[in-house]
Design brief:
Blueprint: E1 8-13, H1 24-42, E2 46-53, H2 58-66, H3 71-88, E3 95-98, H4 102-117, E4 121-131, E5 136-137, E6 143-145, E7 155-156, E8 176-177, E9 185-194, H5 200-209, H6 215-224, E10 233-234, E11 236-238, E12 252-254, H7 256-273, H8 280-283, E13 292-298, H9 302-315, E14 323-327, E15 330-332, E16 335-336, H10 347-353, H11 356-366, E17 374-376, H12 378-398, H13 419-435, H14 439-460, H15 462-467, H16 473-494, H17 499-508, H18 540-550, H19 573-577, H20 586-590, E18 594-604, E19 612-617, E20 623-628, H21 636-639, E21 643-647, E22 653-655, E23 658-660, E24 663-664, E25 666-668, E26 675-677
Parallel strand pairs: 1-2, 1-13, 2-3, 13-14, 15-17
Antiparallel strand pairs: 4-5, 4-9, 6-7, 6-8, 9-10, 11-12, 15-16, 18-19, 18-21, 19-20, 21-24, 22-23, 25-26
Helix pairs in contact: 2-3, 4-7, 5-9, 10-18, 11-12, 11-14, 12-14, 12-16, 13-14, 13-16, 14-16, 16-17
The protein binds one RNA strand through helix 6, strand 10, helix 7, helix 9 and helix 12.
RNA sequence: GGGCCCGUAGCUCAGCGGUGAGAGCAGGGGACUCAUAAUCCCUUGGUCGUAGGUUCGAAUCCUACCGGGCCUACCA
């Protein structure tokens, strides 16, 4: 229940598009927003976190066609996937809607009518390329052709990657639809526009002095858009289009970027209706107290949220955003996320390998609330999470809780040299940092408190008190009581970032953490449950596995496809021809050191009937010369570059042609023709051992 | 072409006009052994991208340049 002093805060994260899965880049925003919301709730404010799938547009329509099914089937499937991913990362939406909802259709109509009433809608013919085979108008990116300036081939319809020229798709020398391959034709169609110039004055005022935007964003808008007359915004698309048909303009559909932000309101409506309220309680002025509206977005969609969206809201007489909080993009190991490098990591792939809490903490430690890109450096990630969360915070409980299992906390809070009070006083600065979305600062302050707490434990040496017997029991209880209270205080401060740690801490001592104020008073006289591990260390091997699972198979190096070969038809002949060897132990096996190696050179051995001379790399500078009996089955040139498995600790053997320093593993024999080299799954690196 | 952001120790980042430039991690040395090889103490390490300028004083303000990232209105 909200107290009179509490604020009403509506928070949104950008709506993920239904054409793709959630990846680590998306999660920067959802984790950031979730932390902010959990913080506000912990502070006792009336805060709701709304989001939805963004479902409409050409891309979904094209995809559904390509997959031979309806758009609604596609978006339902993607919605389920998105929700599962978000749940895995403990993103706590109060409601998750869809732009393809009745509520959204109604609200779009309301906003639309307001624009009409104010004379802000205008119609005009637009010439656009049309695919006569697919029967759709083509957005620029669905057209490719030869650049009219530099003649580079296969360029997008809006700009040339080679020479940087920008143009209209109709200017391409030999335009082709990427949908059907057909040559598009220029067709004229009526589009509806929102006139923004009449709102120029309003937008200038709101962007420059409302306080909703960071100064550099305001400058960007002032310099880039507001310095000249605002162009009309094209908000309709002709049929066929997957979206909502405009009620007073049959055959025209709202462009996806019109109905997407209205989805924020629609989600509010669905959430409020379930509680007997209305979206108007949050989006229309006049309420006491008025609601704050905070939008979290990425910098790529800045102008939609800082020009078009406020224009729509203003025209409809609705509440303008209190803050538009803009974050940068995610890089991985200092570079743009890349499928080829294996750094384009999907949320669910991450969840299969690592703890979501680790990523939440790492993002929190990096997010400063400004527009800079943040980098996920994977070495740093493991080091930071292990040092901070496990080494400092969790360790505090791990090293002291067990001394209180029998006795519980001391009945009066002992002298602690002012440590608890000092960290309690820090609460104001930590809260201010959370409020500013400067989570990095909050984490630094919290970790400083954790350092002080660990130093306290070290100085008091409770393990010596434990050994000293009954005479020191009271003192031991006091020291452990201090340490555990300092730990729980940290857990309160970290609760917005690490909700599961907060819950586990509540189970350990003191019950569920419900309020920020619990950081201000130590607990006494309560039982302490048996300690259970609260966080797992990040194992670098798991990160490697994650990247390996993410890296796509380069076509040239893929193992042969087994598709279409039902497993039940495999012959038993090879096994029968060469029965299994006698059982060996794991120790026997481990004496054979099998390694992944890359063939860096291969040549025929002139005088040999069967041998190829290979040079294999075990990574770094380590190479081996190996003679392999695979001549006739593999052309040397085809082998260079590929990964194989070698017996790396095989005793060198002098042969007629030289010394062989290992052996390449291959399947063969048993009556079958051919020698088949083994290839590791993609992602394996030279030097990796087979276990 | 125009614009925005960033460039500080090996790594990730604070500091953003004023005592000799900081933290965490990594590296080196020591202590401890309660704890998920965790913790504590000491310590090595930087011409604050480059070049100019403003100022009594600049990592901090201005200009230019170099490097990285991003935006530029039908890519979401």
């Amino acid at each position: 229940m909200a107290s009179p002093a509490s604020r009403r805060i509506l928070v949104t994260a950008a709506l993920p598009y239904a054409n793709g899965h959630i990846h680590l880049g998306h999660l920067v925003e959802y984790v950031q927003t979730d932390i902010f919301v959990r913080f506000q709730k912990l502070r006792g404010h009336d805060c709701i976190f709304l989001c939805a799938d963004d479902t409409h547009g050409t891309a979904i329509m094209i995809r559904a066609r390509a997959e031979g099914r309806g758009e609604h089937e596609v978006i339902a499937e993607m919605r389920a996937a998105h929700l599962a991913d978000f749940a895995g990362f403990e993103i706590g939406f109060d409601h998750y809607g869809s732009t393809d909802s009745d509520a959204n259709r109604r609200l779009c109509a309301i906003v639309w009518q307001s624009l009409r009433d104010r004379g802000l809608v205008a119609g005009r013919a637009v010439e656009q390329l049309f695919d006569p085979v697919a029967g759709v108008f083509l957005a620029d990116r669905f057209v490719r052709g030869t650049c009219p300036r530099c003649r580079a081939t296969d360029q997008y319809g809006d700009a040339c990657e080679k020479c940087g020229a920008t143009y209209s798709p109709a200017d391409l020398v030999d335009p082709r639809s990427t949908l059907s391959g057909a040559t598009p034709e220029v067709r004229s169609a009526e589009h509806l526009f929102v006139r923004l110039e009449p709102l120029q004055e309003f937008l200038r005022g709101w962007t420059q002095s409302s306080g909703a935007l960071a100064p550099q964003v305001a400058n960007y808008l002032a310099g880039h858009f507001l310095g000249e007359p605002l162009r009309d915004w094209d908000v309709s698309r002709p049929a066929p289009y997957f979206g909502f048909e405009i009620p007073d303009a049959p055959g025209h559909y709202w462009y996806v970027w019109f109905d997407a932000p209205v989805g924020y309101i629609a989600a509010t409506e669905e959430w409020a209706a379930a509680r007997g309220g209305s979206w108007r309680d949050w989006w229309q002025a006049g309420d006491v107290p008025p609601a704050e509206i905070h939008h979290f977005i990425g910098k790529d969609i800045t102008y939609f949220h800082t020009l078009f969206w406020p224009a729509m809201l203003a025209a409809a007489g609705l509440t303008l955003p209190t803050k538009v909080r803009i974050h940068g993009f995610l890089t991985v190991n200092g570079e743009k996320m890349s499928k080829a490098r294996g750094t384009f990591v999907l949320a669910r792939t991450y969840l299969e390998h690592l703890d979501p809490a680790a990523l939440r903490y790492y993002y929190a430690a990096k997010l400063s609330g400004d527009i800079d890109d943040i980098d996920l450096n994977l070495d740093d990630f493991a080091a930071k999470v292990n040092a901070d969360l496990v080494g400092k915070v969790v360790n505090l409980a791990s090293r002291t809780a067990r001394w209180l299992e029998a006795t519980g906390l001391a009945d009066r809070y002992p002298e602690d040299g002012g440590l608890f009070a000092r960290a309690a006083a820090d609460g104001a600065a930590i809260a201010a940092a959370y409020e500013d979305c400067d989570f990095a600062r909050a984490m630094r302050l919290i970790m400083a408190a954790a350092d002080r707490a660990n130093a306290y434990v070290d100085a008091e040496q409770p393990w010596k008190l434990a050994k000293a017997g009954p005479a020191s029991a009271a003192r031991l209880r006091d020291v452990a009581t201090v340490a555990l209270n300092l730990f729980r205080q940290l857990a309160v401060y970290l609760a917005p970032v690490l909700p599961r740690l907060a819950a586990q801490t509540g189970n350990l001592v003191g019950g569920p953490i419900r309020s920020w104020d619990e950081s201000q008073q130590p607990l006494v006289g309560l039982p302490v449950a048996p300690f259970t591990p609260l966080a797992a260390r990040v194992d670098p091997a798991r990160i490697a596995a994650l990247l390996a699972a993410t890296t796509p198979s380069p076509p040239a190096l893929s193992p042969p496809s087994t598709a279409g070969a039902p497993m039940t038809t495999d012959s038993g002949a090879p096994l029968a021809a060469e029965p299994l060897a006698p059982t060996c132990t794991i120790d026997d096996f481990s004496r054979v050191d099998l390694r992944v190696a890359r063939i860096v050179a291969a040549e025929e051995v002139a005088d040999s009937r069967k041998l190829l001379k290979l040079t294999v790399s075990l990574g770094g500078d380590t190479t081996r010369t190996v003679f392999a009996g695979i001549k006739g089955f593999h052309a040397p040139a085809d082998l260079v570059g590929r990964l194989v498995v070698v017996v790396a600790n095989l005793a060198p053997r002098t042969m007629k042609f030289g010394t062989s320093e290992g052996m390449v593993v291959a399947a063969s024999g048993a009556g079958a023709e051919g020698v088949y080299l083994l290839s590791p799954d993609t992602g394996a690196l030279p030097g990796m051992r087979l276990h």
